[in-house]
Structure formats: C-alpha cells, structure tokens
Write a structure and sequence with these properties.
Length: 80
C-alpha cells in the first residue's frame, strides 16, 4: 500500500468518525427535545384540566343562580 492510499483511508476514517459523532449529538438533541415537548404537553394538559374544572364550576354556579332566580320569579308572580 502506498502512502497516498494510506492517507485516503485515514481521511475516510476521520470523516466517518466525524459523521458518527454528529449523528450521536443530533440523536441526543432530538431526545432532549422530545422530553421537553412531553413535559410541556403534560403541563398544558394539566392546565387544560384545571380550566375545564373551573368552567364546570362556573356553569354549575350559573345554573344554581338561574334556578334561584326562576324560583324567586315564580313566587313573586303569584303575589301580583
């Protein structure tokens, strides 16, 4: 094997190592991004759940007040 061939093999090996390192770094970045997105989704789902509970409580309160208003209206109509 001549020195020129040996140099080409070393360059190819070096390039393969660089490509593999870049691939590994990219995989780590992707995994970190996935973890972050999962956490953000879980956090948003929890906030959505709390908002839904608040909406339901407000609806219940409105229904309760409407019921009281109807009861009050019915009792005052009989007086007229």
């Amino acid at each position: 094997m001549c020195a020129f061939s040996f140099h080409i093999i070393n360059v190819k090996s070096f390039c393969l190592v660089l490509v593999e390192e870049k691939r590994e770094k990219t995989v780590v970045k992707i995994e970190n991004a996935k973890r972050k997105i999962r956490y953000e989704i879980a956090e948003l789902n929890e906030r959505l759940k709390q908002k839904k509970l608040t909406i339901q409580k407000l609806k219940d309160e409105i229904s309760k007040l409407d019921g009281q208003s109807l009861d009050h209206s019915a009792s005052t109509e009989g007086l007229s």
